[in-house]
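Check out a protein:
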Amino acid sequence: MNRRELLIQSASSISSLAVGVSIAGTAAAAPSSPAKAASPNYEKLIETTSKCITTGQACLSHCQKELAQGNKVMAECLQSVLELVATCESLQKLASYGSVYTKEQAQLSAKVCGDCAKICEKHAHHMAPCKACMDACKDCEKACQAV
């Protein structure tokens, strides 16, 4: 490496560092957003969505096994639980961030949880994963409605 290349590389590194320091200084000087400063405590919501996701994933596995054995009745359940897990994962993340969109997502999640619970109820009396999912869905639905 010759002097010219060394000087160019050094200047590039110094300018990158200066930009980084400038950005960091701007972020530190900026006031925190009012939405973040006033974010509510969503601990119960995070807890119930976590349980709903966990039982939902167990139910997904159960549905897949049943479908592989030819039990086509589980197709509706599988679709419902796929939607449930996706919705609850989204809600859990928004709630943990204290997002201003948490309430809107909680309304949607309450509906998805309620619908999934109704579908799980069809199998809850003879399939343990369905009962666990149904119970978690009902708890999560209540927590979502409370937001």
